[in-house]
Design brief:
Helix content: over 70%
Order of helices and strands: HHHH
CATH class: Mainly Alpha
Number of strands: 0
Number of domains: 1
Structural class: mainly alpha
CATH architecture: Orthogonal Bundle
Strand content: under 5%
Number of helices: 4
Radius of gyration: 15 Å
CATH topology: Tetracycline Repressor, domain 2
Largest sheet: none
């Protein structure tokens, strides 16, 4: 992974994390791009380099969570053997 790809993924992870914490404060339908960006510390134009809509961010975030669950489940299974 080169430096640009690494920075791109880091920025995406900031928005994923910000997005995960906002539903504690309000419903998904009420969360805005501006709020995600403010919480992540990125400019809204950066959001639109990564995603077209909030649903795209939602899909990526859910995918990230599923990947983490699978990874930890597989690691747990190896530890049990």
């Amino acid at each position: 992974m080169n430096k640009q790809e690494s920075k791109y993924q880091y920025t995406a992870s900031l928005m994923d994390e910000a997005f995960l914490f906002l539903p504690e404060q309000k419903d998904y339908d009420a969360i805005t791009v501006k709020e995600v960006c403010r919480k992540a510390g990125v400019n809204p134009s950066i959001f639109h380099l990564h995603y077209e809509t909030m649903n795209d961010l939602l899909e990526e975030t859910v995918g990230m969570i599923i990947d983490l669950i699978i990874k930890h489940t597989l690691e747990y299974g190896r530890d049990e053997q």
